Amino acid sequence: MQCQVCSLVIVGQHHVRIAIRFYPGNFWHITDLHWDPTYNLTDNPELVCASSGTRPAANAGKFGDYACDSPWLLINSSVYAMKNILPDPDFILWTGDDTPHVPNEDLGEEAVLHIISSLTHIINQVFPNTKVYPALGNHDYHPKSQLPSPLLNRTGFRMLVLNTNLYYDQNKATQDMDDPAGQFSWADQVLTEAANNKEKVYIIGHVPPGFFEKKRNKPWFMPSFNKLYLDLIQKHHSVILGQFFGHHHTDSFRMFYNSEGSPISTMFLSPGVTPWKTSLPGVTDGANNPGIRVFEYDTQTLLVKDVVTHYLNLTRANAARGRWEKEYRLTESFRVPDASPASMHQALERIASSRCYLQKYYEFNSVSYDLTECNSDCRVDHVCAAREVDFDRYEHCLEKEGTAAIYGVFLPVLSMAVSLVFANW
Ligand SMILES: *[C@@H]1O[C@H](CO)[C@@H](O)[C@H](O)[C@H]1NC(C)=O
Ligand SMILES: *[C@@H]1O[C@H](CO)[C@@H](O)[C@H](O)[C@H]1NC(C)=O
Ligand SMILES: *[C@@H]1O[C@H](CO)[C@@H](O)[C@H](O)[C@H]1NC(C)=O
Ligand SMILES: *[C@@H]1O[C@H](CO)[C@@H](O)[C@H](O)[C@H]1NC(C)=O
Ligand SMILES: [Zn+2]
Ligand SMILES: [Zn+2]
């Protein structure tokens, strides 16, 4: 996109980056593969895939359709793309949702296990010597979202795998509990021990706290669990060097602040492999291009240094050959020195106050699928979802930013003066 102010300034930063010594490492994060084994190319768009429901798969091609979950060829293509792009990562994070969006009746336990084992198999086959940290999604059980028992695991000395499906408001099995499966007290204990041992921790999970940025007032967690999650991060932020989640299928992030308002932690929401257009009422055209993502980090401190997202333009892939491309590098696109909480806060403030950064962020949010303009309501939804995980503070943000949109930043009359200010950032 044309965005002179945004793209101008990269040169100076490279000096800074070279000057800072760190011990580079990198890892993959993939999520929401949602393999649909029924996908097949037929002349009747309504019979292409079970996951499209009653919607026709109007542009079905061999790599998929925006109305459908992933065909095997797309799964295969994404795992081999990982191998081509970064064949020897330090590890792979795989945060769940493996099965298609179909009614429970259409997907027995056997089918769920078959899907999970096929995906596990291809990842292990292509990356035989790489450690994979999996977290289960809400679609990885049968019946969906009704988890009977905890699946807690501490798969590594610095990896905390949370089963946040327990907090999902559709999970009837846990809604009356104070601390389902004792996971919060367990996590509190693990993080306390980590602090005592001077360890650093990454948290991975599937369903994130806070709100869905594509639909106003849409949280996933029950309110009490959302609060407990925030408390956990605020208490232990000094040992938590990153949080990596999925479920949205979009590319976004969530900020965590202390009581003084300083940024203390970031949750990265990585885009899904499935292009499936969400059927959530109130979201228009909520599909995405398939995305996979490399995190660059410091192996000594676990500081997240950068995020590089790669994607498949599904339309183009179907028309010609499937070719995965780099979509963007975080530090270049948002002109920040790294992916620390302070830098992500800076990126968020740019997105909140500059039309140009907002539009860039918005296009990345759907992995360059939806290239329409992010208007002022859209701005408020995305900015408040990223800024406020807490339910009350989110509500307050909607009011405040909604008013800001009326009085200032986005009024065309004022925007020239404002963009001059941002040009100096
Ligand atoms: C293609 O998928 C449709 C819908 O799931 C199914 O009815 C049909 O039998 C499938 N055809 C083949 C050849 O698998
Ligand atoms: C998977 O992708 C690889 C690399 O492009 C290709 O060699 C292989 O034939 C594919 N397998 C299937 C089943 O599509
Ligand atoms: C859980 O941890 C145990 C050992 O700590 C390991 O053997 C097992 O594979 C892990 N399971 C998962 C799902 O990561
Ligand atoms: C994806 O490919 C289609 C078809 O070639 C093209 O019209 C569209 O602009 C591409 N999108 C991006 C973000 O490059
Ligand atoms: Zn999903
Ligand atoms: Zn999910």
TrEMBL record:
Binds 2 Zn(2+) per subunit. The keyword Disulfide bond applies. The chain crosses the membrane at residues 404-423. Its main location: secreted. One of its GO terms (biological process) is sphingomyelin catabolic process. GO terms for molecular function: metal ion binding; sphingomyelin phosphodiesterase activity. Pfam families: ASMase_C, Metallophos. Keywords: Disulfide bond, Glycoprotein, Hydrolase, Membrane, Metal-binding, Secreted, Signal, Transmembrane, Transmembrane helix, Zinc. Zn(2+) 1 binds at residues 32, 34, 97, 249. Residues 263-401 form the Sphingomyelin phosphodiesterase C-terminal domain. Its cofactor is Zn(2+). Zn(2+) 2 binds at residues 97, 138, 206, 247. Residues 26-250 form the Calcineurin-like phosphoesterase domain. It is found in: Secreted. GO terms for cellular component: extracellular space; membrane. It comes from the Eukaryota. InterPro entries: ASM-like_Pdiesterase_prd (IPR017064), ASM_C (IPR045473), ASMase/PPN1_MPP (IPR041805), Calcineurin-like_PHP (IPR004843), Metallo-depent_PP-like (IPR029052). PANTHER family: ACID SPHINGOMYELINASE-LIKE PHOSPHODIESTERASE 3B, SPHINGOMYELIN PHOSPHODIESTERASE. Belongs to the acid sphingomyelinase family. This is Sphingomyelin phosphodiesterase acid like 3B. It comes from Sander lucioperca. The gene is smpdl3b.
